[in-house]
């Protein structure tokens, strides 16, 4: 499976949430793909998932850690970037994963990027 770098139009889901969410902000860190900002692993500002089926109440997303896990360096100096393999743990017990990276640039093992033909 290809591993995509996540950009500001990405969508994500929580294991216990009832809707998908987006990033609430994305900083210009000097690395753009398809005119969109790539998301660094310290960006935990994401929207709520409406309702938590684990606790049977409205979702008020709170991250357990201040960084996404399984991020990638990509050979850049700006920091590590979130990829489609990255996850974020919620204090309430949920696990957030990327549904759509928001772009078509693929990360390769050597830290190089390649573009794929969108289907």
Oligomer, anyone? single chain
End-to-end gap = 15 Å
Largest sheet: 3 strands, antiparallel
Q: What fraction of residues sit in β-strands?
A: 15-25%
Instruction: Kindly report the average pLDDT value.
Output: 85
Number of strands: 10
**Low-confidence regions:** none
What is the number of helical segments per DSSP (H or I, 4+ residues)?
0
Order of helices and strands: EEEEEEEEEE
Notes on the structure:
The mean pLDDT is 85. This protein has no helices and ten strands. The protein has 119 residues and is mostly beta strands. Strands 1-9-10 form a three-stranded antiparallel sheet, with no helix packed on it. It has a three-stranded antiparallel sheet with strand order 2-8-7, with no helix packed on it. It is elongated, with a radius of gyration of 14 Å. Pfam families: DUF4280. It comes from Flavobacterium hercynium. This is DUF4280 domain-containing protein.
What brief labels describe this structure?
3-stranded antiparallel sheet, single chain, DUF4280 domain-containing protein, DUF4280, 119 residues, mainly beta
Kindly summarize this structure in a few lines:
It comes from Flavobacterium hercynium. The chain has 119 residues and is mostly beta strands. The chain is 0% helix and 24% strand.
Sequence-ordered SSE layout with sheet pairings:
Blueprint lengths: L2 E2 L6 E4 L17 E2 L2 E2 L13 E2 L4 E2 L28 E3 L5 E6 L4 E3 L5 E3 L4
Antiparallel strand pairs: 1-9, 2-8, 3-4, 5-6, 7-8, 9-10
């Amino acid at each position: 499976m290809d591993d995509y770098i996540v950009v500001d139009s990405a969508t994500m889901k929580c294991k216990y949430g009832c809707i998908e969410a987006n990033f609430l902000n994305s900083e210009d860190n000097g690395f753009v793909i398809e005119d969109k900002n790539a998301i660094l692993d310290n960006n935990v500002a994401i929207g709520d998932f409406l309702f938590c089926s684990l606790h049977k109440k409205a979702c008020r997303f709170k991250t357990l850690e201040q960084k996404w896990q399984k991020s990638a360096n990509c050979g850049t100096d700006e920091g590590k970037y979130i990829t489609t393999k990255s996850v974020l743990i919620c204090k309430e017990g949920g696990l957030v994963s990327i549904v759509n990276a928001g772009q078509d640039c693929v990360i390769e093992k050597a830290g190089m990027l390649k573009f794929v033909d969108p289907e």
